[in-house]
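Peroxide stress protein YaaA
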Amino acid sequence: MNLTWTAIRGPRVGTYDGEVKILLPPSEGKTPANSGSPLNLPGLSAPDLNPQRKKVLSALQKVSKRKDALGQLGVGASLSADVERNISLDTIPCAPALQTYSGVLYEAMGAPDLVADAMADETLAQRLRNVHVFSALFGQVNGLDPIPAYRLAMKTDLGTLGKLSSWWKPVLAKSFTIDPAEVILDCRSSDYRAAWPGPHEQVVTLGAVKVNGTKRSVVSHWAKYYRGELVGRLLADERELPTSSADLLSRAEESYEVEFTPHAKSRPAALTIVLRD
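Structure:
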């Protein structure tokens, strides 16, 4: 399903609206739009990032034209069409970020349906603008920002720019500022957390563990699934979004067995979904 969506900027990044901000990783796989307008950087949220976005886009297009592009981008031959598409990212159709990103988390979240519903529901649309996907190409975009399907990982070294997580970190530190009262639900993987760690006293990471007797193990696939499922439930719920870590914990407990670890000086708080055999 592809929808035509014109970017409508919500509050500026850093404007506190009393609700949780949700941080997502991008998916490696993306769904190219069949129709829609081409990339319009001035129309994206966080327009202060556009000079940096242009630099990464230009570097990515140059690398993607090289004979060794697959190796430079760390992908196999099966993804050659994705890399070739990188060359035309400024001319191919775009779709809302939550429709472009695919994979386990976004499927569990019901992201395409949320985008479709938001076209007729401004309250939901504003919630999706409070979802921020951290991106190696764009730094970060909100859930309704129209973007093309690209292939680029945050751990990639783009030559003169270096490793992108390191390159974006000082940029995002200045751009992605938050209110001191705000709570951040962080569903990102480590590479994307490295680009913007956030203040430990405000960030709550979301994960999942599998418990079998006394044995506990991290389950990457299911962690993605349950992150997406909880986020989808929060966004689709008619109630207001949580406004504190206590609210987050309470809402998660409605659907899962969970554990909560408060923040410490060296780490953020952690909300963990417990899966028992």
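Residues 1-15 have pLDDT under 50 and may be disordered.
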